[in-house]
Amino acid sequence: MTVNEFVNELSSVSLPDVFNPYRDVCEFSDDENSPGIRCRNLSLLLDAISKQRVSSVWLGRDLGYRGGRRTGIALTDEVHLAILEDNFGITGVAKATVGDESLRERTATHVWKMLCLLDQPILLWNAFPFHPFEKGKPLSNRCHTAREFDSCREILMTLLDWLQPTIIVALGADAESALKKLDFPCCRVRHPSYGGEKDFARQIREIYDLES
Fold first, then answer.
1. Range of 176's domain?
2. In whole angstroms, what is the distance from residue 14 CA to residue 133 CA?
3. Is 175 inside any structural domain?
4. Count of domains in the chain?
């Protein structure tokens, strides 16, 4: 599967109470061009990955409304788009939402703080690649359901089979559970949100043998 085919597959998915940033337009922060910009952001990232050896994948649960819902990049908010470009040596990643404000997400902040300590590009992804929200509350976060995961499990399988990473870091129990369903071994770490940032940082340092 090519990068374009992969992104096209993502953009074809439509599910109830799920925002697909590669096809859907957010009434609060987007214009008609926003899904296309997010598709391009992801395509640029995957194109860069296809040209270099990326041996690690960090897997979260699903996109958050302040992060990947807006950028199209897992575990990455608008504040960290420029750092993502530097990390992968790419140009052209753009803010997809309207207005001057760039939102910051707590999880993305802690994830990128640790990524900046490593001298290697790491792919960020999610067990469920879209933003599930509570019914009637599009700017909320919820965990994806088992049925939602099953409807998209082939997307995760395709990505991991393509990359063949030597290290998969699962951010929290939900990400670990998804990988177990697909028989991919992983290193589970504490999710950095809601008081887990210190444990998360310590565990990442241990996995990558970083000095404290």
1. 3-207
2. 14
3. yes
4. 1
User: Which two structure tokens, joined as six digits, stand for 135?
Assistant: 């019914």
Separation between Cα atoms, residue 96 and residue 160, nearest integer Å: 26
pLDDT of residue 119: 83
Reading the block at residue 192, the tokens are: 């950095």
Rounded Cα gap, residues 208 and 117, in angstroms? 10
Q: What CATH number does the domain containing 125 carry?
A: 3.40.470.10
Closest CA to 204 of 193, 194, 190, 185: 190
pTM higher than 0.85 for the full model? yes
What φ, ψ does residue 37 adopt, rounded to 5°?
-65, -40
CB contact at 8 A, 37 and 48: no
**What's the DSSP call for residue 73?**
S
Beta bridge partners of 171: 189
- Rounded to the nearest integer, the mean pLDDT of the chain is 96
Distance CA 187, CA 132 (A): 25
- Got the DSSP string for 126-150? ESS-SEE-BTTBTT---PPPHHHHH
d(CA 130, CA 135): 15
For residue 143, being part of any structural domain is answered with: yes
